[in-house]
Amino acid sequence: MNTDDPSPSSATPRTLADRLAAARRARFIGRREELAAFARMLEPGHHAPVMFVRGPGGIGKTTLLREFAELAEARGRIVVTLDGRNVEPIPERFEQGFLDALGGLDDTVPDGLVLLVDTFEAVAPLEHWLRDQFLPRLPADAVVVLAGRTAADTRWRSDPGWAELATQRVLAHLSPDEACAYLDARGVPHEQRRRAVELAHGHPLALSLLADALRASRTQVLDSPGERLPLMRTLLERYAEDMPTPEHRTAFGTLILARSTSESLLADLVSPQQAEGLYDWLRRLPFVEEGPHGLLPHDLVREAFEADWTARDAPRVEAVRNGIIRHLNARIHRLGDDERYRFTRDWMFLLRKHPMVGPFFDWSADFDVLYCDELREGDEEALVALTADLLGVQNAAIARHWVRRQPEAVHITRDQEGRLCGYGLSVDLALVEEADLQVDPALRLAVDHIHRHAPMRAGDLGLIGRFVLHQGSRMPPNPTFSHGSLAMLVKFLTQVRLAWTLMFFPDADLLLPLFNGMKDYHWQHRLRELDFEADGLRFGCYGRDWRAEPNPAWLACTQQDHHHHDRPRHAAEEEALSRVAFVDAVREALRHYTRTDRLVTSALLRCAFLRHEPSVEGLRSALSQAVHALAGHPKEEKFFHALRLTYLDPGASQEKVAEELGLPFNTYRYQLARGIDRVVESLWQRELGAGQQARSLS
């Protein structure tokens, strides 16, 4: 290959994929320096194998990564591409996504690997872990490109090792000559190019939209003002004018409002008969990407069209938004914990522009660079100190009490270094004892209120929200409140025995707009009779008896479970779990192996492989058998020990388990993840076999 031309080979295409790649290359203009730098990274012994690519939305990062992939594959490299939007910012989930993308290879990472991560800002909480643990494990000749909107953390430069191995490039707008060349390649007439270049200011996405409009003879777009958002709105109005049916307009509105748009979502909002055709139509739009969970419009397109559409037809926007919420509500209660996280993010995403609800949630970059975690060793003192700083020593003592009494009731918000930035605490009323009521005045008030109005029955769930605090902030908006709201939303939508929620806040009246704005979704009442003072602060309560006021959408999804709660249904009566839902259900069951109250609601109880013993003990037995089976294989015995000490015989933190096994923590997490995969596959094969047997008998 000619080293002066780093682009992939232009040999005669042999497959349709080759023709597709050639068509994309024909439209690719500029970025010669970036391509040449990447080509050098592929040379043996290159000194800097990690590149950060930074630039604003629509600047061409995704397109550049496609070119990198083509170039690497043309040189015989194995390429793994990940999109941060499709990976939860949790180490084991990133690692699982990475291994899945290897496509049929075993757990050994091949030499010469090229890893390309797009939308890197979405997994920013992992930057510390990637730098210190994940990337150092890759082969010495691996090449890594991390592309996103934000700059690399300064520690890449301050670390003597990484300072030599990592570089950063900032993507600029295309030059006027490059912009003209792009428009020429797109077939835009010569006489229109100069004005188009002036309007787009070299912004690749704006150039692409302009080219589409001009090729369709919509020359009036050249009269648009030169600012980017007005230009985007003008261009998108042309797309709106060309939508042939109301169903196409609904599909396009769904694309703009939903975090991602799937064919099943379109089937619910439009019709099952038209969903496939509408999905294909949306997928062909030039500003749409397809991910593993559906279609995603470019952020600038979403922002421009949503603002314009809301100003012109707010009732229609609200109708489509509510349709998406109904779709999510109908599905979320059938999913395991991991999938529920994604669906709740989808749910909360819909409310980010709500005039009353949106301002109380942190939609800034801070939300994405922090992550939610369980309580770990060493967190107690930091948590108590944060509480004392924001709420006083009396409330700090109450927080310490609950950390020790119900550690599972605490969720921690951490930064990239794993440090505690905030926490939320929701007490499980079923585990409260009389001594607890002497420590926490809120619990005494809550228990008395419930006893007076509607006592809980055996098996009911009651949640008492006590604290939601973030560094420097005891009131929303802040990232911890946003993360905690996702966790509470899961309970609101999935707990069939949810009876009461009572949530206490300092300065509670400041939250009235939030709870009034949620009246159509998951409302709470201001219960002033439960107000009290502690450390000179006035705490107020919002609450709800879910048995007296079930959410209509929630009730529609779960009433069948209420009616048959005490009677396990035959597997043939239940809707079969998808592979994704099955995987999540197994992971959740392992995490709660010792907790009967959690396993009794497991989706696995309705699976065919448990049809002869659809009980908690039957589920525990199946999990234990799958785990112990690994002990009989020399290559998998290490997975057995990680699973046994983490789930079957717990009692220590994961850090302590790693220490007991004599392993670095990252190696332990890797072995645990691989062990979970083995258990999932074992049970899935049992499920497939049992399902076939049940069908043959019927």
Supply the key terms:
single chain; about 10% strand; 5 domains; 31 helices; 15 strands; globular; alpha/beta; about 700 residues; Rossmann fold; about 50% helix; 8-stranded mixed β-sheet
Helicity, in percent?
A: 40-55%
Average pLDDT confidence is 82
- Which percent range describes the beta-strand content? 5-15%
Specify the CATH homologous superfamily of the largest domain. Answer: Gcn5-related N-acetyltransferase (GNAT)
Shape: globular
Report the end-to-end length measured between terminal Cα atoms. 62 Å
- Which structural class matches the secondary elements? alpha/beta
What value does the Rg take, in angstroms? Answer: 27 Å
Give a short account of the largest sheet: 8 strands, mixed
Number of strands: 15
Ranges where pLDDT stays below 50 over 5 or more residues in a row are: 553-575, 694-698
- What is the tally of helical segments? 31
What is the CATH topology of the largest domain?
A: Aminopeptidase
CATH architecture of the largest domain: 3-Layer(aba) Sandwich
Number of domains: 5
